[in-house]
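User: quick one, fold this
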Amino acid sequence: MRRSLALLVILVVIDVVLLFPGGREARSRDRSAAGARAPARVGLVFDVGGRGDRSFNDAAYAGMVRAERELGIEAELIEPGEGADRESAIRIFAARGFDLVIGVGFIFSNDLTLLAREYPRVHFACIDYAPPMRDGRPLPIPKNLVGLKFREEEGSFLVGAVAGLVSRSKVVGFVGGMDMPLIHKFEAGYRAGVGRVCPSCRVVVQYAGSTPAAFKDPVKGAALAVSQVGQGADVIFHASGSTGLGVMRVARDRHIRAIGVDADQFEDGLHPGSTTRSAVITSMVKRVDVVVYETIRAVIERTFRGGVRVFGLREHGVDYVHDSSHGRDIPAHVVRRVEELRASVIAGRIRVPEAP
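Assistant:
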């Protein structure tokens, strides 16, 4: 897979496209002439924090790698910086006539909505899509854009139940990244899960900030975790991107339990050469890898449909990790109780709140 492109290259190519607007149509004709067997070209633009977060971005990357291996696509990646850099990254793929352009994170919602209208022959996908608003109403989503969303509250409900059942202090923590509605869904589900199995438990909640930078600040994550341990928390769930690396480090050092997010964040050590057992007892997983792969396959098989798709427990879009392959020590009775709760959510007997 080719490496991320430099911003300078992005801007140069964009200038060329603007100076020679016929280039996009010419490339499209060239692609058609190449025949139906030409490999699909897919561009993926990472969210804040980029690759290496062992979470949201890495899950999207895993789905891309799988599609490259199994579907034979040509894949390119870009890790943008701040601000308009994101729009430039998406535009370069669209201008080059890629078959599919994926933005990883809600932060791409506005840009993808606008560019999907500008490039109607290109397919677009946005993970955690948040539709732009006008006069208090969401704007219609273009037909060539699919917004991929998750019921994060349902997976968080299950790990909240784990936390409430294994906590000895009856105080558990939650560290959120950016203080925003999307992360409030994690908090709401977690609170509900804790309360369902341990009404006497107290949940300590803190957020790392109010901007996207709150998802890439491990130092702040560590400071918040230390604060929560000081308040008695012996289990901490984070929904904070790479900020959570600091949370998990403190959990390991203070001998408490952590709960990961988005991907299975269990590791034998948080640092190279470490032999310390992971503090992560479970993780709330979002199958970003699966939805990325399936969206790519839909484009290849010409079954792509625009609009909003939502994935929860019933659709296998969220879950929690409880296997024993890594030596986790979740007691069997805890797993049984959480599995009962999972079945009740899927059956509709339990409705998990989306807001705290």
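User: anything notable?
Assistant: Confidence is low (pLDDT under 50) at residues 1-35, 268-275.
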